[in-house]
Amino acid sequence: MTTKFETHEHDVLIIGAGGAGLCAAIEALAQGASVGVVCKSLLGKAHTVMAEGGIAAAMANVDRADDWRTHFRDTMRGGKFLNNWRMAQLHAQEAPDRIRDLEQWGALFDRTSDGQILQRAFGGHTYKRLCHVGDRTGLEMIRTLQDRGVALGIDVYMECAVTRLLKDGDRVAGAFGYWREQGRFVVFKAKSVVLATGGIGKIYKITSNSWEYTADGMALAYEAGAELKDMEFVQFHPTGMVWPPGVQGILVTEAVRGEGGILRNKNGERFMEKYDPKRMELSTRDVVARAIYTEVREGRGSEHGGAFLDISQKPAEYVKKKLPSMYHQFLELADVDITKGPMEVGPTCHYVMGGVRVDPETAESTVSGLYAAGEVAAGLHGANRLGGNSLSDLLVFGRRAGMAAAQAAKKVRQATIDQTQVDKAEREMLAPFQNGNGESPYAIHRDLQETMQKLVGIFRVEADLQQALQELEKLQERARRMHVDGSRMFNPGWHLSYDLQSMLTISEAVTRSALARRESRGAHSRIDYPSLDATWGKQNNVVSSQKGTMMLRQEPVPAMPEELQKLLADEAEAVAGKGK
Amino acid sequence: MADAILEVFRGDRQGGKTEQYRVPVAPGMVVLDAIHYIQGHLAPDLAVRWNCKAAKCGSCSAEVNGRPRLMCKTRMDALPLDQPIKVFPMKSFPILKDLVTDVSWNYKINKKIPPFTPRPGTDWKVYQDDVDRVQEFRKCIECFLCQDVCHVLRDHDKFEQFAGPRFFVRVAGLEMHPVDGKSRAKLLRDELGIGFCNITKCCTEVCPEEIHITDNAIIPLKERVVDQFYDPVLMLVRKIRGVNEDSK
């Protein structure tokens, strides 16, 4: 059937052109599928480009004792055992091969003296494990994947945003969206759809994330009937910039600590001695973020409400070589020469561990034909992600999603597009132009960010979370009446009006999940339930839409096979919590 | 702190004019913050590209007070605030709307460049010394400011014959890659038009990543083209040895 809109047809449609999306595209092309990649920005600008520290893979180039088992154990330990064990296993086993893929496609990593890929230390990793290029690893990765994809001939729909997934019965049938430039609507027909849309950071006021991180992939999946998992686990990276105000939240790579950076409070105390004397600055992100937050709250913070991170004890040339972007970032944006003095840093919303619930082998969601990989998917990282495990996640599960999506596409015929769904999607997008006296989406977005920052932040408590739910309801009501000015041509206000709906939906999922989990685990810290709880250690929160209402239920964490349990025997029990 | 006046181009392919906006200045503020303030409070439909706001993605290129710059890296306190700050889209590319230009030409040129092609039988042992000089080229964030400022494109409109500094940087990254075995000298001469560059170094001056585009990328590539096509001795050697012009 035909629609009045421009229509494109592919075997596999990939939404998002960051690391996961491009890996999925490359693999789906290798499987012989016709592939379309839709991305909101220009190609090569996706969030992956901002990743700094490195890609975790047990190559054992520097520390010979490393192997996938240790990487698996570190990942599970970092995730406080809420991870999907199979995803953690596949990730640890396959990451080294994915690094080799990148190298064979032209990536140039920093080297060891014997000509191998150099690896650096990072929080929560037992061994030196992060393959890196100074502090611009993400740029190297995305450019390599971009070049590979272009050489293979991928079709990229740049500056195009998807607002609805279309379904044919229980199966995904394509997507509806708009071109940012002209505001024209567009329909994609596809046998398989891969979500690779990244995260949700823009629901918070202080975040390292770009405008693109508006939770749209999770909202698309949720609205299409897929389940979301672990949404309470939002990672606050311990070190974002805190001063000046314009740069608040911009990331300061963990590589600063990986290269020997030391954290101090205003009294000059190396406070990590109190919070994790064994791992100190290289403790996991949840622990370091809470430590900095606690120091500030108890009056030992820096002038602008952060902590001091100092790498100036290292030779200036070394700092400039290993951390060139940090050197320039602080010199140009904050007037601080990091080779001479400390940086002021504080927690910034960085990553979401939760997301679309997927099958570990295929990355397929609970909706047939719909796949998810990278930050938009849940499972690998459990309650807290280790630094460096995100880029390797994109490589491993991006490829797996692309492979499974292409293979599944071979077995089915193109589904039919239901015109009533398309018409509804169009009406939804045009509504904000027709609303009379509503507010600007920018005003509602600012209030959403304040609400989430204040009430659903690093430390959470029942009363705040309850209040957040009420506030979210009011914001949703305001959003129903919001108004957009101007034309449909490259109109950021209009674009935000859609993104805001996604952010509101997913903010509610985060808040409901956080309210339900009455314990503190990984990135989820409840002031009223400060300890690990054995019962909660065995279940994941799952969110889904039932006839338009958000439903939350618990599901047991999948049981691990015995040989993997043995790998974790020493500490699994301790971290799972002993019960009340 | 005082307010600043921003004079921002508003318009599309059909034309346009500048509009003035008053923006409160905060410590450490950059021009992109001011643009965001305008979007959030004064003109929600003001079109601008941006992503990382940390000079890593190269999206927010524009001309601030006449100079091609990343707006996220341009501090307000480095500009004279007693007069309006003029913010215009990149001049060399067709305007789409406000500060957003059509940069799709760059993506078309990029497709002409043969990809990384490892030498057969390589053992992938690569040393830091060999990596160092190539990593400079791989720092490029594709902001296209070098393309915007290059007079061959900006003033002489040689979009059909000339690839621009960005793509010489990309080719340099491939040509000097320690494992790559392909020569792109013919392409540089015939299709990318490297001969048009008369090394005025404007590209190097505007590069936010401080890549020495002219000295480290373009001049060595020009030398490669000369070696391959205009050096009589080397030409003879190649003829005798029967070396294919596609290999280095």
Tally of contiguous helical segments of chain B: 10
Number of strands of chain A: 20
Strand-pairing-aware structural class of chain A = alpha/beta
Indicate how many domains the architecture of chain B comprises: 2
Largest interface, C-beta within 8 A: A-B, 68 and 56 residues
Q: In what order do the strands lie side by side in the largest sheet of chain B?
A: 2-1-5-3-4
The CA-CA distance between the termini of chain A, in Å, is 60 Å
What's the arrangement of secondary structure elements?
The complex is a heterodimer of chains A (580) and B (248).
Chain A: E1 6-15, H1 19-30, E2 35-39, E3 55-56, H2 68-78, H3 85-104, E4 119-120, E5 130-131, H4 137-152, E6 155-158, E7 160-168, E8 171-179, E9 185-195, H5 216-223, E10 228-229, E11 234-241, H6 255-258, E12 262-264, H7 272-275, H8 285-297, E13 307-310, H9 316-322, H10 324-334, E14 343-352, E15 355-356, E16 370-372, H11 389-411, H12 419-434, H13 441-455, E17 459-460, H14 462-480, H15 492-516, E18 525-526, E19 539-546, E20 549-556, H16 562-576
Parallel strand pairs in A: 1-2, 1-9, 2-6, 9-16, 17-18
Antiparallel strand pairs in A: 3-5, 4-5, 7-8, 8-9, 10-15, 10-19, 11-14, 12-13, 13-14, 19-20
Chain B: E1 3-12, E2 15-24, H1 31-42, E3 61-64, E4 67-70, E5 85-88, E6 95-97, E7 100-101, H2 104-111, H3 128-138, H4 145-149, H5 151-154, H6 165-175, H7 185-190, H8 202-206, H9 213-230, H10 232-241
Notable features of this structure?
heterodimer, A: alpha/beta, Methane Monooxygenase Hydroxylase, Chain G, domain 1, seven-stranded mixed beta sheet, 16 helices, B: 248 residues, alpha+beta, Ubiquitin-like (UB roll), Fumarate Reductase Iron-sulfur Protein, Chain B, domain 2, 2 domains, five-stranded mixed beta sheet, two-stranded antiparallel ribbon, 10 helices, 7 strands
